[in-house]
Amino acid sequence: MTDEARPGFTAEPRASLSLLDYRRRVADLYAAVRSAAPEHGWHLWREGRDELFRSHPQSPIPVGRRAVFTGLPHYPYDPALRFVAAIEPVPSGGVALPHSGDGTTSGQAVGVATVTIGGALSEFTVFRLDQYGDALFLPFRDATAGSETYGGGRYLLDTAKGADLGGTETTLVLDFNFSYHPSCVHDPQWSCPLAPPENRLAVAVRGGERLEPR
Q1: Using omega within 30 degrees of 0 as the cis cutoff, is the peptide bond preceding 213 cis?
Q2: Structural domains counted in the chain
Q3: Cα separation of 169 and 114, whole Å?
Q4: Domain range holding 131?
Q5: The pairing of beta strand 154-158 with beta strand 104-117
Q6: How many C-beta neighbours within 10 Å does residue 139 have?
Q7: Is 164 helix (H, G, I), strand (E, B) or coil?
């Protein structure tokens, strides 16, 4: 989505500074999450994101819908969906992540995390994105996709945007209560990278952001 497609932002430097401010606020929000107890951090995260979506010029909610926006729907917090996962290395190789619209996002698989969800082992590949300063990215699609959540999946980590739940040199905190939808769910003008085949799960991950219950 170009700056011209963002309502009210058609000229530099206004667009770039506004986007910088949005990303800074997201990074500050995740810093607060990392310093808090998990469930308290989840409440901070929900409140902070709702405020950004409601009021910030870079919100993915279209301008005409912000006045009636009442908050993003979520599953209840489930402590069983929080993991400190070892990231096992994988052979290097490029990947082109599919998009909701035109284009792809290029990257490299850097490691695999294995966790147990709903009694089943599930593997997730973590990617390093070539065009975003080697940021780490974890998209996934689970059995709720297409009904309870967006059919293209959700995101858990995106360090280019400050979405980082913590970890060490060999581990990452993967708390699926912090899963969230890509921007294209809120406005189809966005073309968002989606989960590749290796991150499409047979199990349901009922944590994080969801679609409005039917």
Answers
A1: no
A2: 1
A3: 17
A4: 3-199
A5: unpaired
A6: 26
A7: coil
